[in-house]
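Dear support,

I submitted the protein below through the web form. The confirmation email said the job was done, but the results page showed an empty box. After a refresh the structure appeared. I'm attaching both so you can tell me whether what I see now is the final result or a partial one.
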Amino acid sequence: MAIQLPARGKWGSKIGFILAASGSAVGLGNIWRFPYTAGENGGALFLVIYLISILLMGLPVLIAETALGRFTGKNPVGAFNAIKPGGQWKLVGYLGVITGVMILSYYSVIAGWTVGYFYKAVTGKLSQMTTSEVATSHFTSFIGDTAMQLVLVALFILLTVYVVSKGVSGGIEKFSKILMPGLFLILLLLLVRSLTLPGAGKGLVFYLSPDFSKLNFQVVISAMGQAFFSLSLGMGAMITYGSYLKKEESLASATAWVAFFDTFIAVMAGFIIFPAVFSQGMDPAGGAGLVFNILPVIFAKMPGGVIFGSLFFALLCIAALTSTVSLLEVAVSYCIDERKWSRRKSTWLVGGVTALFSIPSVLAFSDITFFSQTLGTKKNPVNFLDLMDTLWGNLSLAVGALFISIFVGYVWKTSNALKEIEEGKEPFKFAVVWSLSMKVLSPLLIFAILGMFIYNTFIK
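What the results page shows now:
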């Protein structure tokens, strides 16, 4: 029996959903995290396992979340409660809403860095960073300027609030239709420039010629983790976005396009960064500092570096914004559906709370030791932002995705989910494979990622 849907926002078109959902999935994880994680794990070998993981785990869970959202027409809390009223499963929805706010609080800090570096690129200041030592020193000084960081965070959150406050079709969809094509255009320009750099061929060999002798459990887990996190799974963003998808649209087709665009952009980021890194004889395993400590040096030495540096950091800004919009929308949708607040009130209130929560992450790079180095364990102290990423950007997402896959596979049941997936359309060709993935493969793979993460972070 179908659930009676309340009057609420809807995507104006299938392409609107695809671009908005792709924007949610595409973020700094694709353009910042993917290249350095691939660089640390063998390049091409990592890429092969990553693509397999998208097909076996990422896409099935993405379809499940979207189907759950469209069937109930609810936010994460409402979705679980609609199918299993009065039970404890709605706690998984609450976890998703809280996770979205917590991730947004520290993600906005990193997003602010992209704005700052876009300004530096446009004004030619990146040309001063001719060595990695100079670039690293500059970056350390930049993130340590607390007043400047608070301004950048506030700016990014205000921009996010503005987009979300305009509504589903008039705000998120409208801006996605502008931002995502812009992102693709910049990506293409950077791709052409990177591939034409002298020595770029060495980067292509590193990225496209897998050395299977280096295959180990750590590489597999890292690739599966990246596939999982890059699609924004586990916090209810796709449940929320799916709840705005019209019944007449093909759910399977739409989600497949979302997974394709997300994966395409991550792969293209590798084609941009590795040829550029190898052209300058630098280390592809540069870690998390690859974007802010190494790429500015490359742009400083590259002909036309001011232009291409500006385009690259503009790309990061756009990717960050499309993600922060979806992070905010999860909590806003909850306030509208469950608390019956207006969109304007919900957006500004959640945005304000998020801004307050972002302050400790800004202070993670200040001289206040409690936030900068005394958190974590004595053996492995971490700053506040890293702790937030560990708890919410890794642990909480994995827990959420594990419970979502179990809920769809065994509580809602895949047979009911398939009815929603096939609503008004031809039979889902991969129904058997998808059902097997939801009941067995996805939970096992997510559990393996979760177990390895807990072991490496808290036990090892």
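Response: this is the final, complete result; the empty box was a page-load delay. The two ends are 49 Å apart (CA to CA).
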